Amino acid sequence: MMNYENGSSGPPADPPVSQAPPAPQAPAVRADGLTVIRGPRTVLRGLDFTVPRGQITGLLGPSGCGKSTLMRAIVGTQAKVAGTLEILGSPAGHPTLRTRIGYVTQAPSVYDDLTVRQNLDYFTAILAPGRPASDHRHEIDRVLTDVDLTSHADALAGNLSGGQRSRVSLAVALLGAPELLVLDEPTVGLDPVLRRDLWNLFHSIAATRGATLLISSHVMDEAERCHRLLLMREGEILADDTPDALRTHTGSETVEAAFLHLVDEAATAAREKETTR
Length: 277
Ligand SMILES: Nc1ncnc2c1ncn2[C@@H]1O[C@H](COP(=O)(O)OP(=O)(O)OP(=O)(O)O)[C@@H](O)[C@H]1O
Fold this sequence. Notes:
This protein is α/β, with parallel strands linked by helices. It is built from seven helices and ten strands. β7 (180-183), α5 and β8 form a beta-alpha-beta unit.
């Protein structure tokens, strides 16, 4: 005999298809005790941080503090990585991440003797081997529009300006609509107008595609353009916060002043630790 609880006379209504709450989406990056050794040096020392999805996180710190090393670890090209490093819910370097991450290194990786479109054709063929070129056309047109290079599609990459070549590299990274874009100092050496245009492009990529961008820079004024910041120094994370919160917590007017405040604070804490030994 059926036993209906709650006093109703009929059978219970069908349960919802899934009563379990949706699993929270893993952050774009989760690091726990992340340590990297390069040659004789410990370059990253036990980093703990997360990078949320759908936002622009700036990775800022002086030259040599370990920004590129951290990015290499995130994209899975760095050896001697210890601790936990999860990217989009999978361990860094997992083969399924290859098409989900776009990476632009400091040196634009484009072939000078190919046109912009030929470069994109070539990299698309690597990303999706075996697909006929006609299938890629729409996507290549889309990334050319994204980086505003449609009118230079048939120019030889070797004849482009530095800023245009950087944008070709970015277009290559955008192929396949990756969920995470890792950009290593993409604005270095560019004039202020190009830098502004690139930052506008980064914001439009985050807003229209919902992509996560991790962008390194050693120019502190670029910090103000990020949703969140990871401030690094000598292989450690000094702060992980929004630009507003950083300024407020340190009583500083600019992120640069906040950074210097945190450096001084860390030095004082280290001295105190030393004298209490
Ligand atoms: N192949 C290597 N072997 C040993 N040490 C290395 C190697 N490559 C880099 N390093 C060291 O690791 C540290 C971090 O370098 P990394 O390139 O990550 O810094 P960065 O913050 O990206 O610097 P920049 O802003 O100048 O690009 C530096 O002190 C550097 O000397």
